[in-house]
Amino acid sequence: MTAEHDGIDALMAAITDEPLPDGADDAYLAEHRSASADIAALRAQLDIIGRTLGGDPPKPAPAPVPVRACVTSPAGRATSGTHSPRGGTRSRVAEPPTWLRHEGAPAPCDRTHQTPRADPAGDVTQALRPVRRRAFRLALGSLAAAAAATVMVGFGWLVAQSDMGSGSADSASGSAEKAQSDSAGGVLFGSPRYLACAYLVAEGEVSSAEPVAADPELVRVSVDLSHVYKPEKPGPKKGDDLGYVIDKNTAPGLRAGDHVLFGVPEKGASPDMWVIGETAVAQERNRINGSLPESRSLNCG
Q: What is the value of pTM for the model shown?
């Protein structure tokens, strides 16, 4: 319970910073000093918290409050001097209660033996600085960990992309090697080996392409030949109209008027290769013309 003097509470007097009443006893003064120290510490804490949240460095600790002046009474006792409204100086014993003193302790107002009071605000500031440093190190460590995780995720993505690119390159390389192998083996359409073994390689225009009534999966195709690459003679020639029944998946979308280049592997068989469209036909035409001389020197088998 707080001490009161003339209706003024010691804690409230410390909070409002009101002057102490005349004739305050030792208990009142002791409680007022304790309350003032607690309030100073609380203000320092609130200041540090506010500046920490706002990002500003804490301001220096306030200077200690000067102690009330001590005078010496005529009897030679140390007293706390106060001025009476009626004039003159009224002496009051400033010694603390006996339970606060210990043997050999100096007189409370003997300035040659007084020990400066520790600044509560300074103590709180010194105590909170390591906490702030630890919080800063923790935040910095978390940021570094997040950055490291981002780097690792990005590195993993690059590795995955590299693996995908390498796989695609390997796949493309494998396809090219397979095509070259097929060409060397006589499988690739337009290669010397294919031309040497094929019964017919010709170019022309589709005159009709109709589904077979008995089987919708089949298409009856008629081609008006415009150029024959193989056989050179005898056999089908320019101007002939050749008809074939093929699976609709062999040349999907084939229709009358399409320009085509096709190959028949053996006599009596249906074409096993269709090239449709002027651009595609022109590319295969160049390949065939380049392969024909070599194909004449090859034997099928």
A: 0.40
